[in-house]
């Protein structure tokens, strides 16, 4: 059984799998296709991705893929803690350009469902953080895009000063929302 919580943007969901513990440790069914379907979420995931970030302040994002490789993502943390961000890029949405920020950790065991039409990124809040996420489409290099993490129009509080963030060169060069083509209508 999954507990599904709404966020400020209804398309983005927090999913909390049950965790059963005893003196040996714990067991958790972190993904169940039938459980998701019972919760009204009917997605077929085709790939699992796993990242490890060594230092606090590692920022990955904001990323998305356009059609035909647009991805829904189900994100969870197995070690450490992140601030996970989803930015609405659906041009016809009343929440276009707004974002949801959710803390995910190995301790709180929550997952974030980021649907197609959203840019996604996260910053690590603990060292040696590991993030796993399922996606509904494979990587498509020609359809791989990004959004500037520091765009003032987005108003994202990454919880750390920008000069303490660790980014790839690629993630420092993404366009701002005003300069981004409208990939999702």
TrEMBL record:
Question: Which reaction(s) does its UniProt entry say it catalyses?
Answer: dTDP-4-dehydro-6-deoxy-alpha-D-glucose = dTDP-4-dehydro-beta-L-rhamnose
Pathway membership: Carbohydrate biosynthesis; dTDP-L-rhamnose biosynthesis
Does Isomerase appear among the keywords? yes
ATP-binding as a keyword of this entry, yes or no, is no
Q: Which UniProt keywords apply?
A: Isomerase
Under Gene Ontology molecular function, one entry of this record is: dTDP-4-dehydrorhamnose 3,5-epimerase activity
> Might you give the EC number(s) for this enzyme?
5.1.3.13
**Which InterPro entries does the UniProt entry name for this protein?**
RmlC-like, RmlC-like_jellyroll, RmlC_Cupin_sf
Assembly description: Homodimer.
Biological role: Catalyzes the epimerization of the C3' and C5'positions of dTDP-6-deoxy-D-xylo-4-hexulose, forming dTDP-6-deoxy-L-lyxo-4-hexulose.
Q: Which family does it belong to?
A: Belongs to the dTDP-4-dehydrorhamnose 3,5-epimerase family.
NCBIfam families membership = rmlC
**PANTHER family noted in UniProt:** DTDP-6-DEOXY-D-GLUCOSE-3,5 EPIMERASE, THYMIDINE DIPHOSPHO-4-KETO-RHAMNOSE 3,5-EPIMERASE
Name it: dTDP-4-dehydrorhamnose 3,5-epimerase
Give me the gene this protein comes from: rfbC
């Amino acid at each position: 059984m999954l507990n599904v919580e709404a966020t400020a943007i209804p398309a983005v969901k927090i999913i909390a799998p049950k965790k059963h513990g005893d003196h040996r440790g714990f067991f958790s069914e972190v993904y169940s296709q039938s459980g998701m379907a019972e919760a009204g979420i009917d997605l077929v995931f085709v790939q699992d991705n796993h990242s490890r970030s060594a230092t606090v302040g590692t920022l990955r994002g904001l990323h998305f893929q356009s059609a035909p490789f647009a991805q829904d993502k189900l994100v969870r943390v197995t070690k450490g803690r992140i601030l996970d961000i989803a930015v609405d890029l659906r041009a016809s949405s009343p929440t276009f350009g707004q974002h949801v920020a959710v803390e995910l950790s190995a301790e709180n065991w929550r997952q974030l469902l980021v649907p197609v039409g959203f840019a996604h990124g996260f910053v690590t809040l603990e060292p040696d953080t590991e993030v796993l996420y399922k996606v509904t489409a494979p990587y498509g290099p020609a359809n791989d895009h990004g959004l500037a993490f520091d765009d003032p129009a987005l108003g994202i509080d990454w919880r750390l000063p920008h000069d303490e963030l660790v980014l790839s060169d690629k993630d420092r060069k993404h366009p701002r929302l005003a300069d981004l083509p409208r990939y999702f209508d």
